Amino acid sequence: MVHGLKLGAMLAAVAVVTGLGVQSATSQAPAPSPFTLAQATVGHGLFLENCASCHNKSLAGGGEAPPLVGSPFMGSWGKRGANELYEVIKASMPMGNGGSLPDATYQEIVAFIFQANGAAPGATAFNGTSKTPIASFANGKTPTGLLDAPVGPATARARRVPVMQMGLVVTGTVKNYTPVTDAMLTHPDEKDWLMHRGNYQAWDFSRLKQINTSNVANLQLRWVYAMDEGGRQQFNPLVHDGTMFLSNNRTNTVQAVDAKTGELIWENRIGPVLDNLENATRTMALYGNLLFYGATSATVHALDARTGKQVWETRISNYKDDKVGGMTVIKGKLVVGLTRCDDRSVQDHCWIAAYDTANGKLLWKTLTVADKGTPGGDTWGNLTNDQRAGADAWITGSYDPELNLTYWGTGQAKPSRQDERGTTGDALFSNSTLALNPDTGKLQWYYQNAPGESLDLDEVYERVLVDHGDQKVVLEVGKTGILWKLDRTNGKFLDLAQTVFQNVWVRFDKKTGRPTYRDDIIHQKPGVAIASCPSPEGGHDWPATSYYQPDDLLLVPLSQTCAMYGAGGQQFYEMPGSNGNLGRISAYETRTLKPIWTFQQRAPFLTSIISTAGGVGFVGDFDRVFRAFDVKTGKTLWDTRLGTGVQGFPITFSVGGEQFIAVTTGTQGGSPVQKPSTMLQEVHRSQTGQAVYVFALPKQR
Q1: Is 0.85 surpassed by the pTM of this model?
Q2: Alpha-carbon dihedral of residues 644, 646, 652, 654, nearest 10 degrees?
Q3: Which residues of 97-107 are buried (b: 16+ CB within 10 A; e: fewer)?
Q4: Phi/psi of residue 89, each to 5°?
Q5: What are the two backbone dihedrals, phi and then psi, of residue 337, each rounded to the nearest 5 degrees?
Q6: Beta strands of 410-534 (E only): which ranges?
Q7: Which residues on adjacent β-strands are paired with residue 267?
Q8: Spatial separation of the C-alpha atoms in residues 606 and 645, rounded to whole Å
Q9: For residue 490, how far is the Cα from the chain centroid?
Q10: pLDDT tens digits, residue range 407-426?
Q11: Which residues contact 156 (CB under 8 A, 6 or more apart)?
């Protein structure tokens, strides 16, 4: 039971909630509001600058951010004092950088949140100390027109969008660039890193072996290139013909760099330039002479990879908060997933779509949310179509050229708790593995890994394709830490393994794998926190697995936190059996799902794992450490500390017969960074330091 566990440091953004706490608007006269109109007015602008990119301009929440308005908010915060909300927001926001704003800024933001929940401004300024219960002066109903009201000029305390020159600011030409073909993508040259996770099968494995277990301890830093500060850093560089392509999602800047020397060749500042957190840009894609970049404006840009000049652009969504998710090229089609598509004020559905790489023309689109009257539509109950949201496709899918099927994972239905979203069914096609024909977008089969998921434990992550003789399987590990194994020809369930401690599912159907939730999760009540192991950080999140093909090993980066999960926040604690180790890597034989070895440490791992034919794996962590390990045993062979958290997708490539290892550093990595951050008070890392580091063996003199 949760109360019998040793608690770790509490995430300041959270407290356990035990009741609804919403007072009837007519039961008694409202108490005086502990804030002024002037505070709320300034707070509106500050909220837009500091909070809206995660919590939405409407305060409705989205992605990992809970709603800050309406019944979900009042259900969790109604009985609690105004000071408690202030203390929580001050300690934990902006995400991953709590306490970074002046006290007055936090007070004004909280005042605006109160006003957005129907509170009438009072005569006394809010200073963060009022213990007046929120439900005594607020009712959760946003005043008509408030969110559409003009927002005054930013105060001197507000952060400013930097003024910078835009467009092609550095000109140059990549020499000896070979157009990328379908054959090259199907059978990548070991010297290149042409796509997200290295190949269509999502292996994160390289056959390069110049760097191996006997010499990796001699690795040296060869060059480093600074990237734009700010924004979510979860990036995967690409390399082709000795040129590395980088992107910076805060300014939407794309760069070509000499992969051997670090010399900048060209730079295109596409824009928009942002001054807040936005969805991560994890990868780009290459095809022909084009480089495809998904900007944070939900626009795909095709650049000439040789010069950086734009060839075409296409806006993939006009909904205000939608973002480009996964991206890959299959048979001349740019296949893109949509994410952050969870605005329930409009019919904003998530989808996977294909565009012509030559001109950006839409070729097909497949929704990941089932509407009324369509297959699976009844699994959303009586919700109107505009209330059906989620099933984001924010992780790039894999592809089997022989079967001509592309495999994508989808995220949870939104809001993540079923009592908030109003469903009792499976909510197809959320939390599912989708097998699509890339020529037409037609759904060939699906398997729902987590039907009716209700604790923000999504199953969107990489689908790894492995062959065992004639058996073709697809493997995936989601936030619950369950390693799923399916027949990728038809979606039939084959097997599963539990990688970390989990207590949300009490049993699995032996034939179908369908899980059953604990009774209190099935019958959850608004505002009541629920024990969840793993926490919404996920037993496994976006830091991807690696398939070490020579020994049939799947190397899985795992996280070990649990939480009391409620509508208003989360209280984190250490996972049972972890002994305080939040980070873990485990190796599994994919043929049998047998565990082979495990390595644990205090700091969470924040990069994917890459393995090489030299028998070496590479991974980076929260505490700035980038390490090499023996893939057969997990033993550390070499490590170094970098400028800030090591996060993103390490790659390896070869130029002029020399093998290199590249990795990115940065901040704002989503759940794996933010969720355990205040449990790691002993870890001190810079809030700046976005860069790419490149390592190699000592030069031969």
Answers
A1: yes
A2: 0
A3: bbeebeebbbb
A4: -65, -40
A5: -100, 150
A6: 413-414, 432-436, 443-448, 464-468, 471-477, 482-487, 493-498, 505-508, 515-517, 530-532
A7: 170, 255
A8: 8
A9: 28
A10: 999 999 998 888 888 888 99
A11: none
